[in-house]
Design a protein that fits this description.
The complex is a heterodimer of chains A (293) and B (297).
Chain A (H helix, E strand, L loop, with lengths): L26 H20 L2 H8 L1 H12 L14 H32 L1 H6 L5 H31 L7 H25 L6 H18 L11 H7 L3 H13 L15 H22 L8
Chain B lengths: L7 E10 L2 E11 L4 E5 L6 H9 L6 E6 L9 H4 L2 E4 L11 H9 L8 H7 L15 H13 L5 E5 L7 H16 L3 E5 L3 H7 L2 E6 L2 E7 L5 H4 L3 E5 L10 E5 L3 H10 L5 E6 L3 H21 L1
Parallel strand pairs in B: 3-7, 3-8, 5-6, 6-7
Antiparallel strand pairs in B: 1-2, 1-4, 8-9, 10-11, 10-12
Classes of the chains: A mainly alpha (293), B alpha/beta (297).
């Protein structure tokens, strides 16, 4: 083997015995390609008309429907009235995290597995890690835009008063980042479940829908029976929604939560645990292709 | 560095699904710079073989080395030396041709220039078009472009020109010839025997999971299968459509001379050398026949 040192990486393409790694396989290359994947994924996402409508605009559409349908109702108290838009805003933001992350990711990857995208990538020197970075990055970018849009619409169109304390926005930031990451990772893990791209929608959407109903997105969480609240507490969406309620609802609503507390440490722990579970499941289940199927 | 070692070494390769042997004791080698055509009917085991070499499938038995590496254990640096053009896929294609190629070029340590690759597959005018808006043949050319963007040492082409019009096929052949001239080793599967004859240096014919013949493109099937055929018609009937005669002979000139010596100019005189397609069809049908006989016993 030649020992010539070269600043270019062109020697990497030369045949070498034993297949010893000879070009940057380190974390730097994975991150660089991951960033390149994010740009490609975000472009692809917005050029695909249907996903923009069904996952991106969905929370805005739902918020608008609730705000208009229940415009006469007071969701607060006599002394402290609350509009439907204000009441539903935290739930819609949490639902957006679930849709952009878990639902979109699980369906998207199952589709890519069955349409040949993953098979093509499997034949290239793209690290799996870069692919994941691309996916999570895409969820992050679209999730930020989606949340911004929902908050702006709530504020401008429905006069929802936004929190002014910086501490609330700090809470918002960490619940959002933790939630969107957990949701995306769980989506990647869940993508292993459907046998084909076509069945992905049928497998994933009901899961996401049930979670939304029992986690305080469409139905006020305090309305649910205690056993259902306890059941919903197993899953991360309940905690993400609770974190968002702490940010956007008046302090007087805290007594309606389980144990009469926003329980932010619980939000961090439960969501964080699901993040770990998702990472482990992804590590175990993710394959570029199903060999021998 | 050993540059004379074969790029692909396959020995006694087996792949079984239950009791069905999709690939049954297949052996072959491909030398550096060579273009090897793997031919065979649908379901013969071509794609299974090529997918084992690409690392997509695990093998049941035998030994395989691709660029000196067991494909089942191939890592990213190994993949960086391969170019893979799979059978056509249905990706969503929400990016443009240039975006996709520029992106994929970033995966490789020593990629080709994006614009040169786009030009070489004849897609200059479509470089800014979303891939999903291209025709089937144009998408196939994007597949080929993605296969060569990384400047591979070994290129797998699995039925690359399916859906090409004749002109596009000619262009594609030109592209493959230039890759060959650059020293790229190529493993090609195709249903178009003229394509294999145009591009291949050697060919292997797979049927029923077995390699039934292997050799240089102009020798496969043996000398006997290449015996020229002299074909003519009797011209002296009332209808003008005489009986057709065929004679397989190693000395077609002498046959024609003797026809002339016998008197009248024969009608529709042809001397045909069996094409690769004729030889291939004969090989496959002989194999199928032999199996029937074997099964009947």
């Amino acid at each position: 083997m030649s020992t010539t040192t070269s600043t270019s990486n062109s020697q990497a393409i030369a045949p070498h015995p034993g297949g010893a790694p000879s070009f940057g396989l380190g974390i730097g290359r994975s991150l660089k390609l991951g960033f390149s994947r994010i740009l490609l994924e975000v472009r692809g996402y917005f050029r695909q008309g249907d996903s923009v409508f069904f996952t991106f605009l969905f929370p805005v559409v739902m918020l608008t429907i609730f705000a208009v349908a229940f415009s006469e109702q007071n969701f607060g108290t006599e002394d402290e009235p609350l509009t439907a838009a204000a009441f539903y805003l935290p739930g819609m933001i949490a639902a957006g995290l679930l849709l952009s992350g878990l639902q979109n990711m699980a369906i998207d990857i199952a589709m890519e597995r069955s349409d040949g995208t993953l098979k093509r990538l499997a034949g290239t020197p793209l690290p799996v890690m870069s692919y994941f970075i691309g996916k999570i990055g895409q969820v992050f970018v679209t999730g930020v835009l989606q949340a911004t849009l929902v908050i702006v619409i709530a504020s401008v169109a429905f006069d929802v008063e936004l929190p002014s304390e910086p501490s609330k926005w700090v809470t918002f930031a960490w619940v959002f980042v933790l939630g969107v990451t957990t949701s995306a990772v769980l989506g990647i893990a869940l993508s292993a479940l459907p046998r084909s791209g076509k069945s992905a929608t049928a497998v994933v959407i009901p899961v996401a829908l049930v979670l939304q109903f029992i986690s305080g997105v469409y139905l006020g969480f305090s309305m649910l029976p205690e056993w259902l609240q306890n059941f919903a507490s197993i899953f991360p969406l309940k905690w993400m929604a609770q974190g968002m309620r702490e940010v956007f609802l008046p302090a007087s609503f805290e007594v309606m939560e389980q144990a009469e507390s926003w329980n932010l440490p619980g939000v961090a722990i439960a969501t964080g645990l699901w993040l770990v579970v998702g990472l482990i499941m992804t590590r175990i289940t993710f394959r570029w292709i199903r060999k021998d199927s | 560095m050993n540059t004379t070692a074969p790029v692909v070494q396959v020995e006694d390769l087996r792949k079984t699904y239950g009791s069905f042997a999709a690939v049954d004791s297949v052996s072959f080698e491909i030398q550096r710079g060579e273009t090897f055509a793997l031919l065979g009917p649908n379901g013969a085991g071509k794609s299974t073989t090529i997918e084992i070499l690409e690392g997509y499938r695990d093998r049941t038995g035998g030994s395989v080395k691709v660029l000196g590496v067991d494909p089942g254990k191939g890592r990213l640096d190994w993949k960086a030396r391969l170019g893979i053009v799979l059978q056509s896929s249905g990706e969503s294609g929400n990016v443009t041709v240039r975006e996709q190629l520029t992106h994929f070029a970033g995966y490789y340590p020593n990629p080709r220039k994006v614009d040169e690759v786009i030009a070489s597959v004849g897609l200059e005018e479509k470089a800014g078009t979303l891939i999903r808006k291209l025709s089937g043949g144009q998408r196939r050319r994007v597949d080929v472009a993605l296969g060569i963007i990384g400047n591979p040492e070994l290129l797998f082409l699995d039925e690359p020109t399916t859906g090409f019009d004749p002109e596009a096929r000619q262009q594609f052949w030109q592209l493959i010839r230039s890759l060959k001239a650059d020293g790229t080793t190529i493993l090609l599967t195709t249903h178009y025997l003229d394509e294999a004859a145009q591009l291949g240096d050697r060919a292997g014919v797979i049927a029923g999971g077995k390699m039934i013949d292997i050799g240089a493109i102009d020798e496969i099937g043996g000398q006997e299968a290449r015996t020229p055929i002299v074909r003519w018609r009797d011209s002296d009937t009332a209808t003008g459509r005489g009986a057709v005669h065929e004679e397989r002979t190693h000395s077609p000139g002498a046959v024609v001379a003797s026809l002339m010596a016998a008197g009248a100019e024969p009608a529709g005189l042809e001397i045909v050398r069996p094409s690769l397609e004729d030889i291939y069809l004969q090989l496959v049908s002989d194999h199928a026949h032999a199996r029937e006989v074997e099964n009947a016993r």
